[in-house]
């Protein structure tokens, strides 16, 4: 029986190998090579799989592709281990003989460790081959599966260029190819996050990397990787150990390999890569119990192993060294390549028909930037002659679902084929199931087959499985059992049916539904299609949703526009939403998808057609030129703005540097400038900001139409030295509104070099710098060399003409930069024309006072204004008094402030001083943040003790107390509750990223807290939120 198992396994994995029927059963042949399998090789339980690993067909384990006519001198890969405890590595070696393993030794001479390594690597390759060989581009075509390499087409990849990871929007630069994600030196890190919207190909990208590894693809960085771990995070529910997950999902819980073996193999490997696919689908991302995934993100596990994480959105915690990469979708070249590879082959006529259908659908053309949408479009457009025009993603999805059902009906007409009697419009139970799955805090991604059938019915389940909307996956439970889990083909389908249920809820007559409660756990940035589908399905629901989004914090105008463009129904309702959107600032940004940019273009078209004023249009680093012939603005993305006649204020901003790459800035000629002004029929102001633009030195008076002179539009621009100029309509000359320059030095080193050159020019020309803004880049003042040193190491020496210096650092979690009194005095003396210096934000620590003997007499007579504001939004401004070197205090927040106190002693002293000032003035302290600074509560006075020993008395005006990154035991927790009892205005106590007692005796909770309804909240180390029930003492 074991002979048959071995032969079957070999033949199954390599169908192109032909078995010669005239050889014995224990011979497997390929060309002139014959494998002889002896009974001794099959002695152990299940040994057929290990034997198969040593058989000749396993030569292909390292990606060498064979054909029956190839010669036998093709070189596979040999695995070897260092003799003296070195790591495991794989190199090219001579061809194995049937008696030799890939270690260069016969199986019986391998150590147990080598056998485990051999099996482990082979089992991984076997697992990945199963996955990448069954790519299904369109759900209902189940009989057409592809190897990923046959259909994978590279979309765009961009990486964030900042030295430390940030949650901001850029800057981003393009990567050459998918392999550059790993190989590009600018993107090297042991932590990379691959971001992408739904359907942008994150999982397909990981399968391509797996293909490259298994097949040792030439030119791929995966070729030299020893161990690749690829896990689907949706499968890891309840599995805290990453090694357990590898054992269960990649090795099938094989008893020959233990979790400790896996850990040792990865640890000893010279080059391992771990890929965690789909963090947004990870069921335990908010688990209170710590998991290995959380430890990996914090660098507590696999600290020296490169890890790639794919996700829709960023995790709550990002290690500073993390590199961000984002997928930007398909451009026209990528779309053409996919059509040729997977749809029509070399049929140029069929290719042109599909492309023509795409051009006929301008909205769909932008949507097809999303690879998943385009793939389904390409196949459907090729196979359906009655393809339609679509005005929204909702209409396309409706058509697509109908195609699925039509395909199944046609197939059911065939002889001996199962027929389904369920109405395609009857899916209310599925709608509810999908809504409940995504509307909870921890979204449900998979279901057991039994559980789903129980909710939907067996016939319904079988029909949607046949449609391809449901996908079954066999999941190994242990070494002897497995179960079948079910998921949607893609999460977009789950969102589609959930949107139907939302519409059902909002359309119920006589019922008042709170949208805050309905969308409580449904973040628009995570579930954008739910909102868009719901708006497209029902106009009444659309009006309510768009109004809800208007008042929701953090929702962009562009997203509200996308929802608006899905809406159908009453014209007045739609126009009312358009007026609402146009009443605020409308922005188009560089780096946004064409879909988002086109949504704004469509909004402007509607506004222009209906005469709706657009209060402000901001073109943020996306302006390319004005097309005089067609009277429109062309954006860098290629889109055109033709509807500008109702725009009141047009603001065009460019890059901070005067050059973009190797080319000079964007030139705007006289003719283009006048054409732009005339096209905007109702503007009151047009502003060009940023040094990227080159405007004409003047506009000849004879070129200026009389109508423009009477309209008196304000036209201004900022030159390369930061000076503002305004056009005089009577003589066509620019009038300088200020003879002083404004200069900002940012974090990015390339921009810093440019800014330093500009500062040197201004100093040489004697032009005053009205404000020099050091934006999160100041490191220290070098007294010996009389210069400012930036964090990048660059030095500022040209400070003679600076009138005001603004030094800012707003990060509350970094180590503070201390500015001693000697440095402060040296800086003030170096800046000869300085009138004011401001230190703003939490990043800097100035001395509590400046000794009088340190203050030079010249500084006292100059009376420079020196201010220190620890919180730029809400707090106290401290101003240096030159008479005694002490700080004078002024409250700047209209009676409500917040105070941050870190673990550093000087910062704690500053915090104590600010709190004393505020308490004396009776000012409401809105929030007090104790970040790694809380120690205990005194027994006698119930005052806060900080880690430096500073004592903070009871604050009677404190409203919110937040203790961050400090564990508290039960005794200290009860003391904190007693302290909050004394703070009579306090409404909330919050613990962040720390350990607290699992429960509290409710009798120990002070009664005034219960009477006042004080909220006690806790966000644990996995960022899951809890609230203490004061009546029971339990966290909920």
What report would you give on this structure?
Helix 7 packs across helix 8 and helix 23 crosses helix 24. The strands form 13 sheets. Strands 6-5-11-7-10-9-8 form a seven-stranded mixed β-sheet, with helices on both faces. Strands 15-16-20-24-26-27-28 form a seven-stranded mixed β-sheet. Strands 29-30-34-36-38-39-40 form a seven-stranded mixed β-sheet. It has 1036 residues and is α/β, with parallel strands linked by helices. Strand 44 and strand 45 form a beta hairpin. It contains 32 helices and 49 strands. The chain is globular. The protein starts with a helix and ends in a 9-residue tail after the last strand.
SSE layout and pairings?
Layout: H1 2-13, E1 27-30, E2 33-36, H2 47-54, E3 77-81, E4 88-92, H3 112-132, H4 148-151, E5 156-160, E6 172-175, H5 180-183, E7 191-195, H6 202-214, E8 227-232, H7 242-249, H8 259-268, E9 272-277, H9 292-297, E10 307-311, E11 323-329, H10 332-344, H11 348-359, H12 362-367, H13 371-383, H14 393-412, H15 428-438, E12 447-448, H16 449-456, H17 458-467, E13 470-478, E14 481-488, H18 491-506, H19 515-518, H20 528-537, H21 539-550, H22 557-566, H23 571-582, E15 585-589, H24 594-610, E16 616-620, E17 623-627, E18 632-635, E19 640-641, E20 649-653, E21 659-660, E22 663-664, E23 666-667, H25 670-679, E24 685-689, E25 693-694, H26 706-711, E26 714-718, E27 724-727, E28 734-736, E29 741-745, H27 749-765, E30 769-775, E31 778-782, E32 787-790, E33 795-796, E34 804-808, E35 817-818, H28 821-830, E36 836-840, E37 844-845, H29 857-862, E38 865-869, E39 876-880, E40 887-891, E41 896-901, H30 905-921, E42 924-931, E43 934-937, E44 944-946, E45 951-952, E46 960-964, H31 970-982, E47 988-992, H32 1007-1012, E48 1015-1019, ...
Parallel strand pairs: 7-10, 7-11, 8-9, 9-10, 15-16, 16-20, 20-24, 23-25, 24-26, 29-30, 30-34, 34-36, 35-37, 36-38, 41-42, 42-46, 46-47, 47-48
Antiparallel strand pairs: 1-2, 3-4, 5-6, 5-11, 12-14, 13-14, 17-18, 18-19, 21-22, 26-27, 27-28, 31-32, 32-33, 38-39, 39-40, 43-44, 44-45, 48-49
Helix pairs in contact: 1-2, 3-6, 7-8, 10-11, 10-13, 15-18, 16-17, 18-20, 20-21, 20-22, 21-22, 21-23, 22-23, 22-24, 23-24
């Amino acid at each position: 029986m074991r002979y048959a198992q071995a032969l079957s396994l070999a033949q199954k994995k390599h169908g192109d190998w032909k078995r010669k029927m005239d050889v014995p059963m224990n011979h497997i042949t390929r060309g002139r090579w014959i494998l002889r399998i002896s009974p001794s090789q099959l002695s152990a339980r299940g040994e057929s799989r290990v034997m198969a690993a040593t058989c000749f067909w396993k030569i292909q384990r390292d990606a060498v592709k064979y054909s029956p006519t190839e010669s036998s001198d093709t070189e596979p890969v040999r695995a070897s281990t260092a003799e003296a405890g070195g790591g495991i590595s794989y190199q090219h070696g001579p061809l194995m003989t049937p008696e030799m393993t890939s270690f260069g030794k016969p199986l019986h001479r391998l150590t147990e460790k080598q056998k485990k390594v051999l099996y482990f690597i082979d089992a991984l390759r076997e697992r990945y081959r199963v996955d990448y060989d069954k790519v299904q581009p369109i759900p209902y075509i189940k009989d057409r599966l592809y190897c990923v390499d046959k259909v994978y087409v590279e979309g765009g990849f961009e990486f964030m260029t900042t030295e430390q990871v940030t949650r901001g929007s850029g800057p981003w630069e393009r990567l050459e190819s998918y392999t550059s994600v790993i190989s590009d030196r600018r993107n090297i890190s042991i932590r990379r996050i691959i971001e992408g919207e739904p359907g942008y190909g994150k999982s397909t990208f990981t399968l391509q990397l797996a293909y490259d590894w298994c097949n040792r693809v030439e030119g791929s960085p995966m070729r030299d990787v020893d161990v690749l771990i690829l896990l689907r995070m949706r499968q890891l529910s309840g599995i805290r150990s990453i090694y357990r997950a590898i054992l269960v999902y990649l090795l099938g819980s094989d008893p020959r390999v233990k979790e400790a073996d896996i850990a040792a193999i990865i640890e000893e490997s010279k080059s391992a890569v771990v890929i965690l696919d789909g963090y947004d689908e990870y069921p335990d991302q908010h688990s209170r119990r710590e998991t290995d995934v959380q430890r990996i993100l914090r660098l507590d596990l696999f600290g020296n192993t490169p890890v790639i994480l794919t996700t829709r959105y960023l995790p709550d915690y990002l290690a500073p060294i993390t590199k961000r990469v984002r997928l930007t979708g398909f451009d026209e070249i990528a779309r053409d390549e996919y059509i040729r590879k997977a749809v029509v082959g070399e049929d140029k006529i069929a290719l042109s028909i599909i492309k023509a259908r795409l051009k006929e659908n301008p909205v769909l053309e932008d949507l097809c930037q999303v690879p998943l949408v385009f793939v389904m479009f390409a196949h459907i457009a090729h196979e359906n002659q009655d393809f339609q025009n679509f005005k929204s993603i909702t209409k396309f999805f409706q058509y697509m679902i109908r195609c699925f059902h039509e395909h199944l009906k046609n197939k059911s007409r065939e002889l001996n084929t199962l027929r389904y009697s369920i109405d395609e419009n009857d899916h209310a139970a599925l709608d509810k199931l999908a809504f409940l799955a995504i509307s909870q805090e921890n979204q449900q991604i998979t279901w057991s087959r039994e559980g789903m059938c129980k909710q939907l019915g067996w016939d319904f389940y079988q029909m949607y499985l046949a449609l391809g909307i449901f996908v079954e996956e066999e999941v190994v439970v242990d070494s002897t059992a497995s179960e079948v889990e079910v998921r949607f083909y893609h999460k977009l389908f789950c969102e589609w049916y959930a949107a139907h249920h939302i519409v059902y809820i909002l359309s119920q007559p006589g019922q008042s539904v709170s949208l805050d409660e309905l969308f409580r756990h449904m973040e628009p940035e995570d579930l954008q299609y739910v909102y868009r589908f719901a708006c497209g399905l029902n106009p009444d629901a659309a009006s309510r949703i768009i109004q809800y989004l208007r008042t929701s914090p953090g929702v962009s105008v562009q997203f509200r526009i996308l929802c608006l463009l899905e809406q159908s129904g009453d014209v007045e309702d739609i126009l009312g939403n358009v007026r609402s959107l146009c009443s605020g600032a409308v922005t188009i940004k560089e780096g946004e998808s064409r879909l988002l940019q086109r949504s704004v273009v469509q909004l402007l078209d509607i506004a222009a057609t209906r005469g709706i004023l657009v209060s402000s249009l901001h073109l943020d680093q996306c302006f390319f030129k004005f097309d005089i012939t067609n009277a429109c603005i062309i954006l860098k993305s290629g889109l055109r703005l033709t509807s500008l006649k109702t725009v009141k204020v047009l603001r065009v901003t460019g890059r901070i540097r005067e050059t973009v790459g190797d080319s000079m800035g964007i030139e705007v000629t006289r003719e283009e400038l006048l054409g732009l002004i005339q096209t905007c029929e109702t503007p009151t102001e047009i502003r060009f900001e940023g040094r990227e633009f080159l405007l004409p030195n003047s506009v000849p008076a004879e070129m200026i139409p009389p109508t423009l002179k009477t309209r008196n539009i304000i036209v201004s621009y900022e030159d390369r030295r930061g000076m503002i100029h305004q056009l005089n309509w009577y003589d066509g000359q620019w009038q300088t509104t200020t003879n002083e320059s404004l200069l900002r030095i940012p974090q990015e080193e390339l921009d810093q070099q440019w800014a330093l050159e500009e500062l040197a020019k201004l100093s040489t020309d004697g032009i005053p710098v009205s404000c020099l803004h050091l934006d999160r880049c100041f490191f220290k003042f070098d007294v010996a060399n009389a210069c400012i040193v930036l964090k990048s190491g660059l030095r500022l020496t040209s400070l003679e003409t600076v009138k005001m210096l603004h030094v800012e650092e707003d990060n509350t979690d970094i180590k503070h930069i201390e500015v001693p009194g000697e440095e402060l005095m040296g800086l003030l003396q170096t800046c000869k024309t300085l009138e004011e210096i401001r230190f703003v934000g939490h990043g800097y620590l100035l001395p509590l006072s400046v000794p009088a003997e340190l203050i030079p007499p010249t500084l006292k007579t100059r009376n420079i204004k020196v201010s220190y504001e620890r919180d730029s939004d809400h707090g106290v401004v401290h101003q240096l008094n030159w008479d005694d070197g002490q700080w004078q205090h002024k409250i700047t927040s209209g009676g409500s402030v917040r105070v941050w106190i870190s673990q550093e002693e000087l910062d704690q002293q500053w915090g104590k001083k600010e709190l004393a000032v505020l308490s004396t003035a009776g000012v409401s302290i809105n929030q007090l943040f104790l970040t790694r600074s809380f120690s205990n509560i005194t027994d006698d006075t119930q005052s806060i003790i900080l880690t430096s020993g500073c004592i903070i008395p009871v604050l009677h005006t404190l409203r919110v107390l937040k203790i961050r990154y400090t564990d508290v035991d039960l005794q200290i927790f009860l003391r904190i509750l007693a302290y909050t009892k004394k703070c009579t205005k306090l409404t909330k106590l919050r613990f962040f990223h720390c350990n607290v007692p699992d429960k509290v005796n409710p009798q120990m909770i002070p009664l005034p807290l219960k009477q006042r309804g004080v909220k006690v909240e806790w966000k644990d180390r996995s960022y899951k939120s809890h609230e203490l029930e004061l009546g029971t003492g339990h966290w909920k």
